[in-house]
Amino acid sequence: MPSEPLSPEGLEAALRAIGPERYHDLHPFHDMLHEGKLNKGQVQAWALNRYVYQAAIPRKDASLIGRCDDRELRREWLHRVADHDGHGEDKGGIERWLILTDGLGLDRDYVISQEGALPTTKFAVEAYVHFVRENPLVEAVASSLTELFAPSIHKRRIAGMLANYSFIDEKVIAYFRRRLDQAPKDANFALDYVKRHARTVEQQRGVIAALKFKTDVLWAQLDALHHAYVCGAVPPDAFRPG
């Protein structure tokens, strides 16, 4: 990071450069998932643990709204809660994720309880919620910018899982198809906000660090899954396939 503030375009370039280096599509567990190299129990473990993250997103977003004096930001951010919790006839992203876990043969109440989730999953997700609740608002917004990199992983996941797993169908992957439309819109708003409000060197360092922190949160969850369900070191009380 230079000693003088980056231009808005320079800041955007710095933020976008984080994805190709640090986004969790680079993790070997995702390669295995998308290439059909996992068995059904390992896919179940991934979906069950990822539910912890999905369920926390509305709490994370609501905590951001609750500390925000910027009406424009509140109005825009509010739909994120509805996108996941649902609104009207749309039951939301959490429900679509539960349709995925239903389709994988997992008991819905067990998934919702989060009892079988890995300790690292729970710690990483709560660290993200606390980060958004406690850090400067522009950093909280910047931490959501992993959505810049999400469409490519969703496209690969849809194609790879449909091609490689007999137990995956269009109904099961509805969550990812919906995010192909939602994530770019959300990312564009957040990126514009960060470019307008991170103007000092300190603020720009903060938002770059925030996005790196978020990539760490996602990466840590996959590290835990790989250690438990590929290497075989499943911790006490965690989900055990079969």
How would you describe this structure to a colleague?
- There is one protein chain.
- By secondary structure, the chain is mainly α.
- It has one domain (8-229): Heme oxygenase-like (Heme Oxygenase, Chain A), CATH 1.20.910.10.
- It contains twelve helices and no strands.
- The chain has helices at residues 8-16, 18-22, 28-34, 40-66, 71-85, 92-103, 108-113, 119-134, 137-142, 150-164, 174-197, 201-229.
- The model has no long low-confidence stretch (mean pLDDT 94).
Number of domains: 1
Sheet-strand content, in percent, reads under 5%
Helix fraction?
over 70%
CATH architecture: Up-down Bundle
Q: How is the biggest beta sheet arranged? A: none
Low-confidence spans: none
CATH top level is Mainly Alpha
Write the CATH homologous superfamily. Answer: Heme oxygenase-like
* SSE string, helices as H and strands as E: HHHHHHHHHHHH
Oligomer: single chain
User: Remind me, CATH topology?
Assistant: Heme Oxygenase, Chain A
Q: What distance separates the N and C termini?
A: 49 Å
Radius of gyration: 18 Å
The number of helical runs is: 12
What is the SS-derived class?
mainly alpha
Number of strands: 0
| Average pLDDT score | 94
Shape: globular
